[in-house]
From TrEMBL:
GO terms for biological process: dTDP-rhamnose biosynthetic process. The keyword Oxidoreductase applies. Gene3D superfamilies: NAD(P)-binding Rossmann-like Domain (3.40.50.720), UDP-galactose 4-epimerase, domain 1 (3.90.25.10). It comes from Aurantiacibacter atlanticus. This is dTDP-4-dehydrorhamnose reductase.
Length: 282
């Protein structure tokens, strides 16, 4: 099985390559290999590679910057998906986000729930979803992180070493996602010949404040931090950003777990695994 992975240098792209099944022949690309917003370039790429499957992990993820850069966000998050879908006749696995929801639900969002994005990022990701065809796989996820990447966990570790105290938003609720776990779910869906919309995040519930407190506690236990600093819960209003964010974006992953029969892993367990890897990286 020849698999083309876009966004190969991103957190998920690297995790997909690291967890790929033995029978997968990977062809990985980044923006400098092929501009996915260029229709002709995508057509040429598909003719050259002739993949059996495409996993689109490329995305414009600068949530706040997108508010003033909508054309670029739409080109990457929506138009590029259309280009891939037009040029490729096989199954497309596409990654999307919890930001397609408005955060007003009183329960975890199911795959078939109505989308109502609050931001340019969310709207462009929703537009990308609309280009998928029957038989494709859409995987929504949230709060992705991994060792060695640019993410909330590593930012918190740095700030906890540099700052005497931190204030972290406590009224945005969801669940973190360890990229290798997400990658294994994607490969599992492919192996099951799944089609349709699926959600994946780690089990449990957290605010960004809860996540930050856990990062400090686990990092202290592993010797990644020398001492603790005070962490205060703050409201979203105390940390204004250009883009509106859903206050509640927990994803209901029961459909995914039932199909794969692989159980649930709590986000704190995966956080510990990531920090162990981070420690090994030095």
């Amino acid at each position: 099985m020849k698999v083309l992975i876009t966004g190969a240098r991103g957190q998920l792209g690297r995790a997909l390559a690291a967890t790929a099944p033995e029978d997968a022949i990977l062809h990985t690309i980044e923006i400098d290999d092929c501009n996915l917003t260029d229709r002709a370039a995508v057509k040429e790429l598909m003719e050259q590679v002739a993949p059996d499957l495409v996993i689109n992990a490329a995305a414009y993820t600068a949530v706040d910057k997108a508010e003033s850069d909508e054309d670029a966000a739409r080109a990457i998050n929506a138009d590029a998906v259309a280009n891939v879908r037009e040029a490729f006749a096989g199954k497309l696995v596409h990654l999307s986000t919890d930001f397609v929801f408005d955060g007003t639900s009183s329960r975890a969002y199911r795959p078939d729930d109505t989308r109502k994005p609050l931001s340019v990022y969310g709207r462009t990701k929703a537009a990308g979803e609309d280009h998928l065809a029957h038989g494709d796989v859409l995987v929504r996820t949230a709060w992705v992180y991994t060792s060695g990447g640019a993410n909330f966990v590593r930012t918190m570790l740095r700030l906890m070493q540099e700052k005497p105290s931190l204030g972290v938003v406590a009224d945005q609720i969801g669940a973190p996602t360890w990229a290798p776990g997400l990658a294994r779910t994607i490969w599992g869906l492919i192996a099951a010949d799944a089609a349709g919309t699926f959600h994946h995040s780690d089990a449990g519930v957290a605010s960004w404040y809860d996540f930050a407190v856990a990062i400090q506690e686990e990092a202290l236990a592993l010797g990644l931090l020398a001492s603790a600093i005070p962490i205060a819960p703050i409201p979203t209003s105390a940390y204004p950003t250009p883009a509106a964010r859903p206050a509640f974006s927990l994803l209901d992953c029961s459909k995914t777990r039932e199909l794969l029969e692989d159980g649930y892993t709590h986000w704190r367990t995966n956080l510990r695994r990531m920090l162990l890897e981070e420690k090994a990286l030095g």
